[in-house]
Automatic annotation (TrEMBL):
Pfam families: Dumpy_DPY. PANTHER family: DUMPY (PTHR22963:SF39), ENDOGLIN-RELATED (PTHR22963). This is EGF-like domain-containing protein. The keyword Disulfide bond applies. InterPro entries: Dumpy_DPY (IPR048407), EGF (IPR000742), Growth_fac_rcpt_cys_sf (IPR009030). The keyword Disulfide bond applies. SMART domains: EGF. Disulfide bonds join C10-C20, C118-C128. Keywords: Disulfide bond, EGF-like domain. Residues 7-44, 55-94, 115-152, 164-202 form the EGF-like domain.
Length: 243
């Protein structure tokens, strides 16, 4: 109600770049969209807020290979293999092993790790040795049984009954001799066709020079070489072992 007239109270009420709305008979001024300030005096153009620039993340996308993780380090992506994996993290990491042949011959591939397969494999009183990736159990010296279960103490061997002593075994007589037991004692003598005394038994001769000049060494014996040598109606003489 203005001057006893129902009139619009807005004209001349709001400042520039503002619009007026009548709420419960009273003018309400608000800056138009895109402007800010005192709507009853002046609304100025609202400055656009700068759009924040997203900082690049060096790990998105990840520069790492399979089974590797990326961590930002000095604004760059640094790759490392996952725990229990080995290899080049930028190309791809792998477990330590997948087959026994990936391990040394004295290790086995257990849960993708090269480990000693012996613990818990052998029984009591047994020793374990790894041969070509496999555990080999053997009973300890003095024990016998199943080395993968239990080894028992080996029983002592039965006592050996002592027999009569043979004085000729081994023979004390030496080469080219023979031994005979006489009253529990060894008696030595040369073999037939051998001469001397044990242990020095030897053949009568080996070369003709060991025989008299009128004899020759034939089959290790000094004999007359004439018989059967000369013809009929002849006489044989031995000179220097030769007929």
């Amino acid at each position: 109600c203005i001057s006893q007239k129902c009139a619009d109270p807005c004209p001349g009420t709001c400042g520039a770049n503002a619009e007026c709305r009548v709420v419960s008979h009273s003018p309400q001024c608000v800056c138009v969209v895109g402007y800010t300030g005192d709507p009853f005096s002046f609304c100025s153009l609202q400055q656009a807020e700068p759009i924040p620039q997203e900082r690049p993340t060096p790990c998105i996308p990840s520069p790492c290979g399979s089974n590797a993780v990326c961590r930002e380090q000095n604004s760059a992506g640094a790759c490392t293999c996952l725990p229990d994996y080995i290899g080049n993290p930028y190309e791809g990491c792998r477990p330590e092993c997948t087959l026994n042949t990936d391990c040394a011959s004295n290790r086995a591939c257990i849960r993708n790790k090269c480990q000693d397969p012996c613990p818990g494999t052998c029984g009591q009183n047994a020793d374990c040795q790894v041969v070509n990736h496999l555990p080999l159990c053997t009973c300890r010296p003095g024990y016998t049984g199943d080395p993968f279960r239990y080894c028992n103490v080996m029983p002592p061997p039965p006592p050996v009954q002592a027999g009569p002593v043979d004085p000729c075994n081994p023979s004390p007589c030496g080469p080219n001799s023979q031994c005979r037991e006489v009253n529990g004692q060894a008696v030595c003598s040369c073999l037939p066709t051998y001469i001397g005394q044990p242990p020095g038994c030897r053949p009568e001769c080996v070369v003709s020079s060991e025989c008299p000049a009128n004899r020759a060494c034939v089959n290790q014996k000094c004999v007359d070489p004439c018989p059967g040598t000369c013809g009929q109606n002849t006489r044989c003489e031995v000179i220097n072992h030769s007929p």
